[in-house]
Amino acid sequence: SYNAVTEGTGVGVLGDTKKLNTYYSSGTYYLYDTTKAMTGVIETRTAKNLSSLPGSYSVDPDDNFNATNQRADVDAHYYAGVVYDYYKNTFNRNSFDNKGATITSTVHYGRNYNNAFWNGSQMVYGDGDGTTFTSLSGSLDVVGHEITHAVTERTAGLEYQGQSGALNESISDTFAMFMDQKNFLIGEDVYTPKIAGDALRSLSNPTQYGQPENMSGYVNTTSDNGGVHTNSGIPNKAAYNTIQSIGYDAAQKIYYRALTVYLSPKSNFSAARAAMLASAADLYGTGSTQYNGVASAWTKVGVN
Ligand SMILES: Cc1cccc(C(=O)O)c1OC(=O)C1CC1
Ligand SMILES: [Ca+2]
Ligand SMILES: [Zn+2]
Q: Using CA atoms, how far apart are residues 114 and 300, in angstroms rounded to an integer?
């Protein structure tokens, strides 16, 4: 037997077929992608519905990952590759650490687990309970959200509580929109599989899912690290306003520069406005259309 870089196929959470970068070794195919310009790899594992990490490699005997219990593995692996390519092709960023770190995803974490998270070293996805969520790796915006938590951790380091925490959340939702430009919804492909047309959050209309969209509606609470998944509606609306005003490409360049050059662990919403304006000035000049678009985007949500 020998080792080889192989191309397999798989069926994702929504029943869609896709090509996969796999690896053959001693009679087994692995969800192990060595094709990217990184020092590490993109690897996908399964916790087999227990909760020890990172779990064992997702494997298959014939390189066709089409079993029902492989769907979450297929999408975690495929979308991790899409997110890697987005950061490399758009900003020349080589993985979340910009040094080619291995991207490890573990699926089938826990039982009926309605959650996905970056644990500081890797991504972890539950299967959902089939009512609130289906397998959470089944959507690019979820995978993009989670990997962006890792990027934020290695750049601005926005503390995960209060305003900096809500900003951390918003950066993840916003880059998910930059990657998945079909709408301004978060999680719609995996949220409430029995109900069509709904989502976990909306950047265009945060209030539709119980989030404020103006500073006047900021929620002071001790739950959820100070309401980081609630108050993110305010910077999310500012991001939506920015994209509507100056388009996706200028917006993503401004957001990436703000994240990597100006934002810091304790940055609040007002500091975010300043960071975005400084980035717009650097890239397009003060008084540019882009600069003015950013200014009005944040003024409209009551952040000055
Ligand atoms: C489903 C879920 C629960 C708790 C935290 C997160 C979190 O990662 O902040 C989470 O994942 C998301 O928000 C992704 C975008 C849908
Ligand atoms: Ca739904
Ligand atoms: Zn998050």
A: 34
Mean pLDDT in residue range 141-169? 98
Question: Can you give the pTM of this predicted structure?
Answer: 0.97
Neighbour-count burial for 197-214, b at 16+ CB within 10 Å, e otherwise: eebbbbbbbbeebebbbb
By the 10 Å C-beta count (0-12 exposed, 13-18 middle, 19+ buried), 193 is classed as: middle
Closest residue CA from atom 16 of ligand 1 = 142
- Give distance in angstroms: CA of 115 to centre of ligand 1: 6
Catalytic residues: 146, 229
H or E, element range at 19 = strand 17-25
Question: Residue 68: CA atoms inside 13 Å, Cβ hemisphere, count?
Answer: 2
Determine the Cα–Cα distance for residues 122 and 102; give it in Å rounded to an integer: 9
**155 vs 116: CA distance, rounded Å:** 21
CA of 123 to the centre of ligand 1 (A): 11
What pLDDT, in 10s, does the model give residues 36-92?
Answer: 989 999 999 999 999 999 999 999 999 999 999 999 999 999 999 999 999 999 999
- Residue of 178, 229, 232 to mutate, ligand 1, most atoms within 8 A of C-beta: 229
Angle at 13 between CA 111 and CA 168, to 5 degrees: 70
The DSSP 8-state label assigned to residue 191 in this structure reads B
* 90-118 pLDDT per residue, tens: 999 999 999 999 999 999 999 999 999 99
CB atoms within 10 A of CB 264: 13
Place of tokens 């985007």: 297
User: Which residues lie below 8 Å from residue 141, measured CB to CB, with a gap of 6+?
Assistant: 173, 176, 177, 179, 180, 185, 186, 187, 188, 189
